[in-house]
Amino acid sequence: MLRISKLGDYAVVIISTMIKDSSITYSATQLVVQTGLKLPTVRKVLKQLTAHEILKGTRGVEGGYAIIANTEQLSIADVVEAIDGPISLTDCSAHHVYQCATTTCTMKPSWSVVNRLVRQTLVDYKIKTLAQA
Hints:
133 residues; Arc Repressor Mutant, subunit A; two-stranded antiparallel ribbon; mainly alpha
C-alpha cells in the first residue's frame, strides 16, 4: 500500500488549518485545539516545518508559528517532503538511488515515470485549495 506517513498527514492538516488565516501567529496549543492532534505531535511537526522554512517560530509571550512560505504556491508535496523526505514509490525510484537491488530488474524506468507523475500531482495540488475544500 502506498501511503504518506502519519506525521506527513498531520503536517498537511496543521498547514491547511494555518493557511485559512495565514496572517496570524499560532501557538502549538491553539493548533492542538483546532486540529484535535496531540501536543507532542504538533510540536514535532512544527519543528520540522520550521527547519524546512515553511514556518517561522518565534519564542516568548507573543511567540508562535507563522507560515513564511508562499501560501499561493505551497503544495502538498512541499509539506509532505518536509516531513517524509523525497516522495518515492519504490526504493529504485528515489532520487538518491541509482541502481536496482538486482541486476536483472527492468522496472526502474517504468517506476520512475509513475513516481514522477504521482509527485507532480502532489506538486500541482496546492494546500490553499485543499484548505478551501
